[in-house]
TrEMBL record:
Gene3D superfamilies: MFS general substrate transporter like domains. SUPFAM superfamilies: MFS general substrate transporter. This is Major facilitator transporter. It comes from Corynebacterium halotolerans YIM 70093 = DSM 44683. InterPro entries: MFS, MFS_dom, MFS_trans_sf, MFS_Transporters, Sugar_transporter_CS. Residues 1-200, 237-424 form the Major facilitator superfamily (MFS) profile domain.
Length: 424
């Protein structure tokens, strides 16, 4: 029996257009798994489970963030060791029970358990699709690749949040909105199984010297501990990116749990709340189609510094507002700031990380970034319990402003023309 020969890997978006497009679709489905919850779960906690303390209500986001952060680490390590595709498939298998558990949940602990599984799913699948797209794109168009990846994911978060809110208003908080997630998981598992191909050979090609900035440079020997410390503390660009990523997802985690409840104080309809919840990831998602590619032309640092400052401004507008119009403006500004930052941070990691250690470096960055979900949920819940919902948004705005200063001081420009050396 003859096996089909493996295709010879070639770097570049055009050369890998079919596989890249499939991975964009898969990542949109990853984002949709989060979007099914965003509008509905905070309201479900209040109306069906009778939860009143914000900190306890936000435990589902904290559980999601911690498990997603841990899954990112394993996704990076295992994808370097065993390949990208097996990790992607495992992630989608873990997603299948999540919507069913949310539909049937008799207690809030079922919701928390479902979000533990969702966190594992998101860590394994999103990290793997990021690494696979970086593998395929090569160095020249890395920002564009990350812009397309993150745009697909967060546009799907927005569309699904909006659709789930509408379905909840028409048919109730359960079960109909969560049937979206079940359909997404089944579809993504099928695409990943039958059509997505392994991309680790592309990383090997880049590491060997083809289209690499320094073909003669030896592959550095770095332990997992070295990579963790470099990404977290020692390497200026990687550590600056990690803290900015954490603050980004702190804002997202806070918005996920707090914004629906804040918007409900103005007695808005579920559809209106769904629109407001969707605006933030919607602008964020679409904006990345522009910002990722623009960072390939103009560099990474200006986008990240201005983006963190813009997020602080958007949060301040939301904190100052008490109605639909002000909240909508603030959500748009917050989404624009996040769009400037999100794909660009991943491009920074791709710029600096050696291709042979790409999965682990991306994994560590995403550990820090996704711990922001838990930090945002817990911080937002505690501040809201103590001094109110608006005060929690002000705290996030202040943290974002400080993060912008850290980036301005610590991050060096990592994007170089082909043939130029990137600082170590």
């Amino acid at each position: 029996m003859f096996s089909r020969p493996r295709p010879v890997p070639v770097l570049g978006l055009r050369a890998n257009a079919t596989q890249f497009t499939l991975l964009v679709v898969v990542n949109a489905l990853v984002g949709g798994m989060v979007g099914q919850q965003q509008t509905v779960l905070p309201l479900l906690a209040e109306h069906e489970f009778g939860l009143t303390g914000y900190t306890f209500m936000f435990t589902f986001i904290a559980a999601f963030g911690v498990t997603k952060a841990a899954a990112n680490w394993f996704a990076g390590t295992w994808s370097d060791r065993y390949g990208r595709k097996p990790i992607l498939l495992i992630g989608w298998l873990i997603a299948l029970p999540v919507p069913v558990m949310l539909i049937l949940a008799p207690t809030w602990w079922w919701v928390i358990a479902a979000n533990v599984l969702l966190g594992i799913n998101q860590g394994l699948t999103w990290s793997t699709t990021v690494v696979m797209k970086i593998d395929l794109a090569g160095p020249a168009r890395r920002g564009l690749a990350m812009g397309l990846n993150e745009a697909a994911g967060y546009a799907a978060v927005a569309v699904t949040s909006l659709l789930a809110g509408h379905l909840a208003e028409q048919y109730g908080l359960r079960p109909v909105p969560f049937l979206l997630g079940l359909a997404y998981a089944v579809l993504a598992l099928g695409i990943s199984t039958w059509w997505v191909r392994e991309t680790r050979d592309h990383a090997t090609l880049e590491a060997a010297g083809t289209n690499h900035p320094d073909p003669d440079a030896p592959i550095p020997v770095r332990t997992n501990r070295d990579i963790f410390l470099d990404t977290s503390i020692r390497e200026p660009a990687l550590s600056a990116a990690s803290q900015a990523g954490l603050v980004n997802n702190l804002n997202f985690g806070l918005s996920w749990g707090l914004f629906p409840l804040l918007f409900a104080t103005a007695e808005l309809s579920l559809t209106q709340i769904g629109v407001l919840v969707a605006l933030y990831p919607g602008v964020w998602g679409v904006g990345q189609l522009i910002t990722g590619a623009a960072s390939d032309r103009f560099g990474r640092k200006p986008f990240i510094t201005s983006g963190m400052a813009t997020q602080a401004l958007g949060l301040a507008v939301i904190a100052l507002s008490d109605g639909f119009t002000g909240w909508a403006i603030g959500a748009v500004v917050l989404g624009a700031g996040t769009a400037l930052v999100y794909p660009t941070l991943l491009a920074v990691v791709g710029d600096v990380a050696h291709p042979a250690q790409r999965g682990r470096t991306v994994g560590v960055y995403r550990v820090w970034r996704d711990l922001g979900y838990a930090a945002g949920a817990l911080l937002g819940g505690m501040v809201a319990d103590l001094v109110g919902l608006h005060a929690a948004v002000w705290v996030a705005a202040a943290i974002s402003a400080v993060s912008a200063l850290v980036v301005a001081v610590r991050l060096y420009e990592t994007h170089r023309p082909m043939g130029a050396m990137i600082p170590a």
